Every structure is written in C-alpha cells, then in structure tokens.
Automatic annotation (TrEMBL):
Protein name: Phosphoserine phosphatase
Family from the record: Belongs to the HAD-like hydrolase superfamily. SerB family.
UniProt KW DNA repair keyword: no
Source organism: Blastomonas marina
Cofactor(s) recorded in Swiss-Prot or TrEMBL: Mg(2+)
NCBIfam families associated with the record: HAD-SF-IB, serB
Catalysed reactions, as listed in the record: O-phospho-D-serine + H2O = D-serine + phosphate; O-phospho-L-serine + H2O = L-serine + phosphate
Lineage, top ranks: Bacteria, Pseudomonadati, Pseudomonadota, Alphaproteobacteria, Sphingomonadales
Length: 297
C-alpha cells in the first residue's frame, strides 16, 4: 500500500489530479481512493494498493508542480521523534554566511556554503575553510548577528510546539554552531541540540573548531540513536535542505526536504515547497484547531 498526501495550488488541483490519475494508471499504479483529508480540507490524500514510492513521487511532482508532499508505505501517523536541520530549515538564514558579513566576507563564504550544500564539496573541509576566514572576528558579532539577522522560518514554533503537545521529542542537529543553535532551540522549543563549536580566545574567533565535527554522519547517527530509545516501531520525522541532510532523511520514517537542494530532495519521502512549516502539520493530518503557537506566539 502507498499513501500520498499533498497540498497543491487550488486553482489547478482538479486538472492536476486528472493528469496524475491517468499517468499513474499508465504505470500500472491505479489509485484506489482520492479524497480531501477530513478536518484538513486543503490536503489531498491518495491511496494506492501497490507501486513504488519513488515512482509515485515522480509522477505527482510532474503533474502538480511545486507542492507540499508526503509519501508513505503505511498509514501516516504523528511521529514520536522529530530531528531537524537548522540553517535554511528551522531558520531562514545560513548562520555562517550572515556572520561572515560582519567580517566583510559574506559573498566568499556564501559561495562555499552553497557548493557544500549542493554536495559539490567535502562538508568538513568546506566548514573548516569557512571558519578559518572568520579568524579575529569579535565574539560580540555572534550576539549581534543573532539579534539582527537570524529569524525562525514561518511556522517553526507552531510545528515544534504542536508535535511536543502530541508527545513528540524534537532534536535540532546542525552542521552549524552551538553559538546559534542553542539560542534557536530555546526559542523554538527543541529538547536537544547537536552541533559544532567555534573556538575563541580573548573574545575573538580563532578560526578553528572545538571537538568532533557535526556532519551528515552525525545527523544520521543522532536520528538512529534517538529512534532506538523509542523502541521498535517508533515513527520518526526528519527535515533538512542540503546534501549533508540526505543520510538523515533516508533514515527517517518520513524524510522531508524543505525548499531543498536536489541531493536532499532525491533522498526524501516528500518535500515542502511552501514557505510555512505548518504545512507539515497539515500533511500529518493535524487539524489547525489542535495547533499550538509555541514560545513567543
């Protein structure tokens, strides 16, 4: 069995659905049932008795264009664990790029960040190269950057708070830095943070890092360890946007690519293309009347 839930443009929904039904039938993947999800009126749910999830995602992507989508091989339920990337996912910025702006190096650092997130560069090497460029920057720039540049993605607080209300533990795991992630996690309501640590001396960045690197393997390992604590059958949700999120997305029950690079999208069970993370709550079938605003509204 396959279940697909999607949120698409209302004006073209009917025509897109007709095209999808025809395309799926041609692939020997007939749709047994198609209906709008109860209490989540804008969510279309499709039920298929058989087929490959990758083929279903491909057809729906082609027929509906940019949409929010989740495909599962079993009935969709609220997860007990949520593990998410931070930069360009839970927040709308890349922290290291914004911090580099205080050193007059944003364009140079951002170009390296983009290539790393596309999977074109080794993550650790790219991280160390970017951090080295920040040598001598005052620690005060971190606080200023947080206050002036770093903002939660719309719907982030509601997503984490509502999942918590439903009994879901949330972990923020990032290839970025505790200096930012600890504050973001506190603002959004995450239970745990995993990330990298910037080295400082006499109030300035040294251009180095402390301890082991938090990278793609760290993200996947964190998800696996947290999932093991749930016991067998615990449903997990992972979300991210870059190539270093791909292993974590594959590991999760529901891997969601948020406005993602191709490497993350290819690894995912679905994606969110809209700019509001409450789309995830809709895809999980949680009606708006049950949403929590979270810390700070």
């Amino acid at each position: 069995m396959l279940i697909a839930r999607l949120i698409a443009e209302p004006a073209t929904l009917e025509a897109s659905l007709e095209g999808a039904l025809s395309a799926l039938a041609a692939c020997d993947m007939p749709v047994a049932n198609a209906h709008m999800l109860e209490h989540c009126g804008e969510v279309l749910e499709l039920e298929l008795p058989h087929g490959e999830a990758a083929d279903l995602r491909r057809v729906l992507d082609a027929q509906f264009g940019p949409c929010d989508l989740l495909v599962s091989d079993r009935a969709i339920a609220v997860p007990r664990l949520f593990v998410s990337d931070m930069d360009s996912t839970m927040i709308g910025q890349e922290c290291i790029d914004e911090l580099a702006d205080f050193a007059g190096l944003k364009d140079k650092v951002a170009a390296i960040t983009e290539r790393a997130m596309q999977g074109e560069l080794d993550f650790e090497a790219a991280l160390r190269e970017r951090v080295a460029l920040l040598e001598g920057l005052s620690e005060d720039a971190i606080g200023q950057c947080l206050a002036e540049r770093i903002h939660p993605t719309p719907g982030a607080r509601a997503l984490v708070a509502t999942l918590a209300q439903k009994g879901c533990r949330s972990v923020l795991v990032t290839g970025g830095f505790h200096d930012f992630a600890d504050r973001v996690a506190e603002q959004l309501g995450f239970d745990r943070v995993v990330g990298n640590r910037l080295a400082t001396r006499d109030g300035r960045l040294t251009g180095g890092l402390l301890g082991a690197i938090s990278d793609s393997s760290t993200k996947a390992r964190t998800l696996a360890e947290e999932a093991a604590a749930l016991g067998e059958g615990g449903i997990t949700l992972a979300m991210g946007d870059g190539a270093n999120d791909a292993p974590m997305l594959r590991e999760a029950s529901y891997g969601i690519a948020f406005r993602a690079k191709p490497a993350a999208r290819d690894a995912a069970d679905g994606w969110i293309e809209s700019r509001d993370l409450t789309a995830m709550l809709r895809l999980l079938g949680i009606p708006e009347r049950e949403w929590s605003a979270g810390k700070g509204g």
